[in-house]
Amino acid sequence: MQVLQWSISFPDRLENAIIIASTARLTAQNIAFNEIARRAIITDKSFHGGDYYSENTFPNIGLSIARMLAHITYLSQDGMTEKFGRNPTRKKKDYSFSYEIDFQIESYLRYQGEKFSHKFDANSYLLITRVLDYFDPAGEADGDLVKALKVVKAKFLLVSFTSDWRFSPSHSKELVSALLENNVQVSYSEIKSEYGHDSFLLEDPGYHELIRVFFSNML
In angstroms, rounded to a whole number, what is the distance separating the alpha carbons of residues 187 and 210? Predict the structure, then answer.
């Protein structure tokens, strides 16, 4: 989103742009996920209306839940099944109210949430997700993405991943179509992957070769 905005705001300064697993605007579903995450943080008893530093604390429970929710959306069902399946962490079933960790996926999510809660500022999380919600270049151009991109001059490479259901290939294709309507030079590739949105973080020879070739053509 930042790269897309730069291409619009500074068309004479941006010559090349790579947009990976992204979108021109969030869907209602994506906004909904962000809202649940924000509510988890805001309703944490340690949030203190956002002034938690003065109380020498931080909403670690809310941040942890927000991260767990977000992390689920970064993965695909096939990827989660392959990595964790329904593998238990212990042999005996426990229906008590202790609700300890019974499955590997639970252990993974709790670990990710706990780690994140000690590294990220809650107010920053709230603001960044709200900025993501509001981002919509077409909204400032009568809802017309083609019109919003008419000033763009950069050469583009767009990449999406087949199993990315949060920022599906259709989002990238919408951007590609709008850029082509403006006679902008754009390349697009849809990479087959089972690992959801997180695919862009992983080692994939074809994906990395695309980026390498694009960079080499800048020289």
Answer: 10
